[in-house]
Write a structure and sequence with these properties.
single chain; eight-stranded antiparallel β-sheet; seven-stranded antiparallel β-sheet; 21 helices; flat
């Protein structure tokens, strides 16, 4: 019991915030709803608004508790008074709702006397609450502005309990005459608060009753929606034309209801918040690339939004279990597609909903569940949802791990092509990943794409870090302000950690460092002192205006000092400028290579960092902007063939000269992935293109296809169609062996064949036989090929015609 209370206490403020937002949204939905009885509409609106403001004030009461400022003094008193008043308001609104239900739905003519007494008791309870503000009868506040119960506190519980008992007696009397769904909601509203109020008396410091009341208010509206939908379906048989005029409003209502239901589903699992919405959004992105029409995309959105509806029928203890599931528990989980189909199949006008729920766990190779369908026997909607669902599962936080780095997610999708996933839709998802260079598509966005960072309260060294800010050849400007914490020492200033990791975050745990390929370059203090970790050279220029001693004195006085940073990276060199009103530092760092990323994380020791914002200036630098202080690292310093060698440090960061293609031409070259390469697609690519002058990115440049030597192919032009066939030869062991061979260095031979509008590229590479056929529509005067890739060196390129 103590554990439950501790957990509830820890998360109750977040629960209050979430529930108040839901009540606010539901109040808006009630306000715009045109199908409710007018009196019931305003009663429900009052119910939702009372619940929303009650939780807002309850949360404020906790937040300002013990705050002895003038604001804290008034906020604690006003908030506590409003909590008690709004609880009475919720009970009074529910009483009016019950009366309205009996009059319109049950058909009674006279309001039961017990409900009238309930209304009078609400009024008396409110009068006593006002009196208690001047007598400390219910509660009082000590000299530290903290709330305490008084001797008469039980009286404030007595009135709601009496009212709920009176209402319960009326519910029992009219139980059989009230609709099944409605009777559940009003019965819960009368019983659950009674139980929670009794518990609340003995568990001081938690708002169990308040949160339960709000939860029941939400349930009342959801059940009212369900009942209202039933009413609309019955009216549809008699008034088809009237319903057609309301289709737009119903579509909005359907979207709101589906979203609310999806949120309720996600709420069953504390680690899947927003999962259904994200899967729906990713599914639509895939569908648009697959050239689905607008109606198909909309149907897919709702099917994906409700794909996990069957989890409603699975026990919370199984869904939220953190350890390994037993066979029996896993069997229960595998039933959720069937349960979802059963729930949604009743929506006959939208059969695609049940299809998405039923088949989204089928595998392309036939080893999925529940039906074991294979290939294109799996409905199209389900094949798309399966890819989006797997992607979100990997990129979302779980109890046992952080979101998986996007590069590793991509590699898993590549491995699942043709086995777990439909090849066509999996390749579209992979292409979306390639376009998402800032890793926007995930549960929590990496801070390299947002405009601010939350304030950091830094204590001991390496105790607090911000997420990494990605540094590129587009100048990044960072502004922050800082002041010392209570322990004022000369060293208490912000610092900046330069590092790389797959998830763009600082890691001190050795296992995470290894798994996320963490590499730390250097630590730079705001006073220009650098601690090198893994750099080749560093050069520092300092220009002091007022001087370091003046800065130190200002900080020791507790002044809030502004700092500005300009950072830009070009290949293996990094330029950082640090400046404030006291001094200026220009730092050039020679990195160990040109391939890995560089992130900058804010930290410090016994200081507070706040007002942080950053942006890209739009100034993109080129070669020569940063003075070179170390030799460029080259893996292509060997004799070249017919065209110059090319080193590709990042995703298509460089490309070879273009080569005009002729029928029967062979392109032979040596390739080797760079020492930092760690993924399957760190290999050469062949770009098929056309342009007026034969240059890459020349006049009228059109990219027709990109063929990668890991077997992937993507068409880059609306007027070309690509079909790729990849088969594994007997020499193929596995992808780890493939990467090892690629890193060791291999000879590759490409054969080009031209048959009218069809260009065929074939090769055998590291155990893969690749054949890509590109069919071109439209006029193309000449075709060219160029070599590029990701983290690879391409040398000794020879052309044989």
């Amino acid at each position: 019991m103590k554990f439950i209370v501790d957990v509830f206490t820890k998360y109750q403020l977040n629960m209050m915030f979430a529930l108040s937002l839901i009540c606010g949204m539901l109040a808006f939905f009630v306000l715009i709803n045109k199908t409710l009885i007018p009196t019931r509409k305003y009663i429900l609106l009052s119910l939702e608004l009372c619940a929303m403001f009650m939780l807002i004030f309850d949360r404020k009461a906790y937040l300002y508790r013990g705050n002895t400022t003038t604001l804290g003094f008034w906020m604690v008193r006003i908030s506590n008074f409003m909590v008690f008043a709004l609880i009475i308001g919720i009970i009074f609104s529910f009483t009016l709702y019950f009366i309205n239900l009996l009059i319109y739905d049950v058909g009674i003519k006279n309001t039961p006397r017990r409900l009238k007494i309930s209304c009078v008791l609400c009024f008396v309870a409110f009068i006593l609450l006002i009196i208690s503000q001047f007598t400390d009868f219910y509660y009082y506040f000590d000299e530290f502005n903290r709330y305490h119960r008084s001797g008469g506190f039980m009286i404030c519980y007595l009135f709601p309990l009496i009212i709920l008992v009176l209402e319960l007696s009326v519910i029992i009397e009219y139980y059989k005459r009230i609709g099944k769904l409605m009777r559940v909601s009003i019965l819960l509203f009368s019983i659950v608060p009674l139980i929670s109020s009794i518990i609340q008396i003995f568990t001081y410091g938690i708002s169990l009753t308040n949160i339960m009341l709000v939860g029941l208010v939400i349930i009342i509206y959801v059940i009212e929606l369900i009942d209202m939908n039933g009413m609309i379906e019955r009216a549809n048989k008699h008034e088809i034309e009237a319903v057609r005029n309301e289709q737009k409003n119903m579509h909005l209502l359907f979207k709101q209801t589906a979203t609310a239901l999806a949120n309720a589903i996600d709420a069953k699992d504390k680690y899947t918040h927003g999962h259904s919405r994200r899967v729906a959004e990713y599914s639509v992105k895939i569908a648009k690339y697959a050239q689905k029409n607008e109606q198909e995309c909309e149907e897919l959105y709702f099917a994906a939004l409700l794909h996990d509806v069957g989890k409603i029928g699975i026990k919370d203890s199984i869904i939220n279990k953190e350890g390994k599931l037993t066979d029996e528990e896993y069997g229960a989980i595998k039933m959720h597609p069937v349960i979802g189909m059963q729930i949604l199949s009743s929506i006959s006008q939208s059969p695609y909903l049940s299809i998405g729920a039923h088949f989204h766990h089928e595998r392309y190779d036939g080893h999925g569940y529940p039906a074991g369908l294979k290939g294109e026997d799996i409905p199209d909607i389900a094949r798309i949802i399966a890819v989006a669902d797997a992607y979100d599962a990997m990129t979302s936080r779980r109890s046992y791990r952080d979101p998986i780095p996007q590069q590793l997610v991509r590699e898993e999708l590549v491995k699942g092509i043709g086995t777990q996933f439909d090849p066509f839709y999996a390749k579209i998802m992979i292409h979306l990943i390639d376009l998402d260079s800032e890793y926007m598509m995930k549960e929590n966005k990496v801070k390299s794409t947002v405009e601010d960072i939350e304030p950091l309260v830094c204590e001991a060294y390496r105790s607090t870090f911000s997420d990494g800010i990605l540094l590129t050849n587009d100048v990044t400007h960072i502004h922050l302000s800082s002041y010392m914490s209570d322990e004022r020492k000369r060293e208490n200033i912000p610092s900046y950690v330069l590092f790389d990791s797959l998830d763009g975050r600082i890691h001190d745990d050795e296992h995470k460092r290894r798994d996320l390929l963490y590499n730390e370059y250097a630590i730079i203090r705001s006073d220009g002192i650098i601690t090198p970790v893994d750099i080749r050279n560093v050069q520092i220029k300092t220009n002091e205006t007022l001087g370091a001693s003046t800065e130190s004195k200002a900080m020791l006085r507790g002044e809030n000092i502004s700092f500005d940073i300009e950072a830009v990276r070009f290949k293996d060199h990094l330029l950082i400028r640090l400046f404030n009103r006291f001094r200026f530092h220009e730092i050039i760092i020679a990195l160990p290579d040109s391939t890995r990323y560089v992130y900058l994380s804010l930290t410090g020791e016994y200081c507070v960092i706040e007002d942080v914002d950053f942006y890209k200036t739009g100034e993109t630098i080129g070669d020569g902007y940063i003075p070179r202080i170390a030799e460029e690292i080259s893996y292509i310093d060997v004799p070249s063939g017919d065209i110059p060698n090319v080193q590709v440090d990042g995703w298509r960061s460089d490309i070879s000269e273009g080569i005009e293609i002729t029928d029967g031409m062979k392109l032979i070259f040596h390739t080797m992935s760079l020492p930092t390469a760690r993924l399957v697609w760190h290999c050469p690519f062949i770009v098929l293109y056309t342009s007026d002058n034969g240059l890459v990115n020349g006049k009228n440049y059109r990219e027709l296809s990109v063929v990668r030597l890991d077997g992937e192919c993507w068409e880059e032009d609306d007027y070309s169609e690509n079909r790729v066939n990849v088969s594994k030869l007997e020499s193929f062991v596995d992808w780890n062996d493939w990467k090892a061979l690629n890193k060791a260095g291999q000879e590759c031979e490409l054969l080009f064949s031209i048959d009218n509008e069809r260009i065929t590229i074939t090769t055998e590479y590291c155990g893969l036989a690749i054949c890509c056929v590109t069919t071109i529509t439209g006029s193309v005067p000449k075709l060219y090929a160029a070599l590029t890739g990701d983290q690879c060196a391409i040398t000794n390129v020879r052309i044989k015609r």
